[in-house]
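Open question from group meeting: does this chain pack into something compact, or does most of it stay loose? Before anyone orders reagents, we agreed to write out a predicted structure and look at it together. Recording both the input and the output here so the notebook holds the full record.
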Amino acid sequence: MVLAHFGDELAAAVGRCRNPVVVGLDPRWDKLPAGFRQDLADNYTVRAEAYEKFCRGVIDVVAPLVPAVKPQVAFFEECGPSGMVALANVMNYAREKGQLVILDGKRNDIGSTAEAYARGYLGRGSVWGADALTISPYLGADSLEPFVEVAKESGAGLFVLVKTSNPGGGMLQDQQIDGQPLYRMVAQYVAEQSNSTLGQSGYSSVGAVVGATYPDQLAELRSAMPNSWFLVPGYGSQGGTAKDTAHAFDSLGLGAVINNSRGIIFAHQRPEYRDRFGDSNWQDAVAAATEDMIAQLRAETAVGKL
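Structure tokens returned:
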């Protein structure tokens, strides 16, 4: 199935679930519940199989609650070929459960290489079948255009790194060029591409990654990219709060999806859930953390209007 328009599909999914939570699938061996970890931690085939089983278990819990999941490619790549098979299986399983799949690969290159990345990853008809992909802008416009063109053809979406949540991001992103920070120049490019990919929802299929850890810039960039979906990392474990994300949304509670990875999938290790659930009931902890995040966003932002 090819999505008609990712921006519209995301709007519909957020509206259906009445929340914008994206659950990041970032499996880490030392944080898995004890039942998933064997003594063969150095056997990457065993590790990949555990990652797949764990991520399927997370999806079983969150699929009825949230619009999308975001597998992080790196944790699967670390396991070699078996990890990539596990990633493909996880993505297929998420789609079977009705989830949109935002693949966090941060890909980029120029010319035919960029096009190969795009055709390999983007759209339900591609080999990987991702509904959307994160991409880096730092090779310039000729590296982004192939992704945009393939996204248009396939009905898929893109999230361009604009203002990331990590503390070191400012080393490049905040550099002043002709009186404005570099991230504003990237935002201008995203806004231009958004205008060429608008859907019936009023939002485009070319979006931006903007971190919750910089709420002032989040408000600034919402104004600069009014028709772009924002993928907002940094909530939870990186210190971002529901209130910090408030400016990412429009007045109806649309326009942004908020990612939470460790804070949800490893909730059984968090103090507020550990005593109640622990390893043996880790899926109940995932459900509780997801529902608590949804409630916080509804209380602190326009998400309450969905």
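Observations to bring back to the group:
The chain has one domain: 6-305.
The chain has a mean pLDDT of 95.
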